[in-house]
Structure formats: C-alpha cells, structure tokens
Automatic annotation (TrEMBL):
<feature type="transmembrane region" description="Helical">
    <location>
        <begin position="216"/>
        <end position="239"/>
    </location>
</feature>
<dbReference type="InterPro" id="IPR036259">
    <property type="entry name" value="MFS_trans_sf"/>
</dbReference>
<feature type="transmembrane region" description="Helical">
    <location>
        <begin position="371"/>
        <end position="391"/>
    </location>
</feature>
<keyword id="KW-1003">Cell membrane</keyword>
<protein>
    <recommendedName>
        <fullName>Major facilitator superfamily (MFS) profile domain-containing protein</fullName>
    </recommendedName>
</protein>
<feature type="transmembrane region" description="Helical">
    <location>
        <begin position="251"/>
        <end position="270"/>
    </location>
</feature>
<feature type="transmembrane region" description="Helical">
    <location>
        <begin position="56"/>
        <end position="77"/>
    </location>
</feature>
<feature type="transmembrane region" description="Helical">
    <location>
        <begin position="282"/>
        <end position="301"/>
    </location>
</feature>
<feature type="transmembrane region" description="Helical">
    <location>
        <begin position="89"/>
        <end position="118"/>
    </location>
</feature>
<feature type="domain" description="Major facilitator superfamily (MFS) profile">
    <location>
        <begin position="22"/>
        <end position="399"/>
    </location>
</feature>
<dbReference type="InterPro" id="IPR020846">
    <property type="entry name" value="MFS_dom"/>
</dbReference>
<dbReference type="Pfam" id="PF07690">
    <property type="entry name" value="MFS_1"/>
</dbReference>
<keyword id="KW-0812">Transmembrane</keyword>
<feature type="transmembrane region" description="Helical">
    <location>
        <begin position="21"/>
        <end position="44"/>
    </location>
</feature>
<keyword id="KW-1133">Transmembrane helix</keyword>
<dbReference type="InterPro" id="IPR050189">
    <property type="entry name" value="MFS_Efflux_Transporters"/>
</dbReference>
<feature type="transmembrane region" description="Helical">
    <location>
        <begin position="343"/>
        <end position="365"/>
    </location>
</feature>
Length: 399
C-alpha cells in the first residue's frame, strides 16, 4: 500500500508549496544524517587540543561511521518497507540527535567511536526513507528534481559543519556546537512528524523479480566504485594541494569547497535531466567517464598545478552528481512496496566504497606517490563507467 496524504492536505505536485516543503525537509534530513562526520572533521583540531582525542581516533571515525552504515544498509531497507518511511525518517533524526549528544559528551576515544558507530544507523536509513517518501508523495514528473535537491543535503550538511557550527564553537566551545546540532536534529524530527502523512499498515512483501534484482546489484556495484573514488578525493584533495602543490591551508581547503559547490549544482542539474523515463540509466556511464577525466586532471596537476581547480570542480560536477542520478534510477523503477530495500542495497555499496576508498588511496600514496593514487581513482571511475554501460544500452533500447 502506498503512502497517501490526507485529502485535506492534498498531494503535492511539481512546483507546489507542498512539494517545496517536502524537498526542504528531505534535504535537511539528509544533511543531518551525516552531520556528525562533517562536524568531527571541522572540529578535529579542537577535539585533539581540548578533548585529548588522538589524530588516529579522528581518522578512525570515518571508517567506523561508513563501515557501520554499509553493514546496516543491508537490512535497513526492509525496516523502512515494513515500519514505514515517516516513522523511520523521524527515528533517524532522533538517533542522529542522540549520536551528536554523545559526541558532545565524549570524554575519551571509546565514547567518541561508539557515538559515531551509532550514527551509522541514521546514515543507513537516510536514503531508503527519503526515497520511499519521494515515491509516495511526489508526482513522477518532479521526482528527479526533488531527488537532486535531497541528495545535495549532504553538501549542505558539510557547509553547516564547516561554517556556522564551526564558528559557533569559537563562542560556545566544541561541545556547545555539537549539542546545538543535536537540538537542530530534534527540531527537524518534530517538523517531519507534522509535515508528512501517517504511514499505512504493514505492506505486503514485494514480489520477487530477477531482472530488477540484477539491475539493483549492478547499481550497487557502480555505487561502490563511485564511493571509493569520491571518498579518496574528499579525504586527500586538500592534503594533496598543501603537500604536493604548495598551497596554504586556507587555499587548499578552498579546493574542497569548490568540489562541494559544483557537487550541489551537478546533483540538482543532472537529476533534473535524469527525471525523464530511461534517462537516469543512460547518464550513469557518461558521468562516471567524466569523473575519470577529472581524476586524470588531478594527476596532471602535479606538473600543471592550475589543473587541480578544474579537476576538483569536475569531480563535483560528475562523480558527486553520479550518486544522485543513481538514486533517481532507483526511484524511477522501484516497486513502491520495495523502494526502501532497493535504495538501501544501492546505499550499502556507496557506503562500502567510502569505507574502502581512502585506505586504498593512502597505501598507494605512501608507496608510490600521489600520481599513482589519482590513477587508482581514475581506474575506479573508469570501471564504474563500464559497469553502468549496459544500463545505458538497455535504456536506449526501451526508448
């Protein structure tokens, strides 16, 4: 049974105030789901200096968060399909609030890592719950645009951690900043309770269909490879700029900001184009190929440093956008009863890539330098394009 809005509220169509409210709500929820990791990164120097958390522990938070999210994503979709998207969205926001509160109270490494591990559950629930809500309450013509904005919530979360919340830490201390984020998550949970329609009763199990299962598996593999490359760039781009290109710390950080800005624009723009029938699958291989070219630009920047800016922008425009288009592909063809499960399996691949990508890159950089490291990223994106190519051909045949 599909979620339906009460008749008095109406079902939001494209361009309506109702759809805009849902878009903002889902974007905020996606930002909150990963806010803990962005905050730890932004407040890392304060955690080391004021809380005595080691640099090694700070680095382990990324692996712990994404590793737990990848494991839980294998079953999170079933929870969403059985319990309902609204309940799970509210639950993920409250769990994120608890995780943030525990981080704010952390007095040692164990508590910090335990809090981050708990925060892996909201990450696992985020895409299944938000995608299922889009399928339920947004008209098909508007789903691509809503998905693009929703996926951009991750970048908005990074912005919130890096600017207003980091600035607040200078006034209230790092704990006050994290607790403020926890309170914000609770407020968004209350908003979700009021803004979304009640969940229906338990849904019947979706029918077993071999072809869609194979398609979802291909999208999960594509997302794994994409996640490996994106995570390596996110983690090491600024360090590459500082160590290899001689950029100052502030200017090196602008590289990440450039990637974030083009990532938002790419996710929204490409997702709008992907909203047409069959278009999402057709875009995945070209986007991955563009991401491969972006990684090669980063490799070439060792000899021509100005290319690093073009490479950073292109990673956002193609690789980061590719993740949003993948979610559009899932939503376009998901059975409403199994949309959560399909979304979770694809998200599991992406999170596993985020957990695996940076360590692989680090090992290669330590042994051979940044050039081969960026070559590995380019290879990951190239293989992703090859994995997605059959989807492009099938989409063309359907049209």
């Amino acid at each position: 049974m599909r979620l339906k809005r009460p008749e008095s509220r109406g079902r939001p169509g494209r361009g309506t105030a109702g759809q805009r409210r849902v878009t903002v709500l889902l974007t905020a929820a996606m930002g909150v789901s990963m806010l803990q990791l962005f905050l730890i990164g932004a407040l890392g120097p304060r955690l080391v200096a004021e809380a005595g958390i080691s640099r090694t522990a700070i680095g382990l938070t990324t692996t712990a968060g994404f590793g737990v999210a990848a494991l839980l994503s294998l079953t999170a979709g079933r929870w969403v399909d059985r319990l309902g998207a609204r309940r799970c969205l509210v639950a993920l926001l409250l769990l994120a609030a608890v995780a943030l509160a525990l981080i704010g109270a952390a007095a040692n490494t164990f508590v910090l890592l335990a809090a981050v591990a708990l925060g892996g559950l909201p990450q696992a629930l985020a895409n299944p719950a938000t995608n299922k809500i889009i399928v339920a309450v947004v008209e098909p013509a508007g789903r691509g645009a809503v998905t693009g904005w929703k996926q951009s919530g991750v970048q908005f979360g990074a912005f919130a951690a890096g600017l207003p919340l980091a600035a607040l830490a200078a006034w209230t201390g790092w704990r006050g900043s994290v607790w403020t984020a926890a309170a914000l998550a609770v407020l968004i949970a209350c908003w979700a309770l009021r803004a979304l329609p009640p969940d229906p009763g338990p849904a019947q199990a979706p029918p077993s269909r071999d072809a869609p299962r194979a398609r979802v598996g291909r999208l999960a593999l594509f997302s794994f490879l994409l996640g490996c490359g994106i995570a390596a760039v996110n983690t090491y781009l600024a360090l590459f700029g500082a160590e290899r290109l001689g950029l100052g710390p502030v200017v090196a950080a602008w590289l990440v900001a450039t990637l974030g800005v083009t990532g938002v624009a790419g996710r929204v723009g490409w997702s709008r184009r992907a909203g047409r029938p069959g278009r999402a699958e057709a875009l995945l291989a070209p986007l991955a190929a563009g991401a491969c070219g972006a990684a090669l630009l980063l490799a070439a920047a060792s000899s021509a440093p100005f290319l690093v800016w073009a490479g950073a922008a292109a990673v956002g425009a193609f690789a980061v956008a590719g993740n949003a288009v993948t979610m559009v592909a899932v939503i376009r063809r998901a059975d409403p009863r199994g949309a959560g499960r399909d979304s979770a399996l694809v998200s599991a691949g992406f999170f596993a890539g985020f957990a695996a990508g940076p360590p692989l890159f680090a090992v290669l950089v330590e042994t051979a330098g940044y050039g081969p490291g960026w070559g590995l990223v380019a290879a990951e994106f190239a293989v992703a394009a090859a994995v997605a190519a059959p989807l492009r051909f099938r989409a063309g045949a359907r049209r």
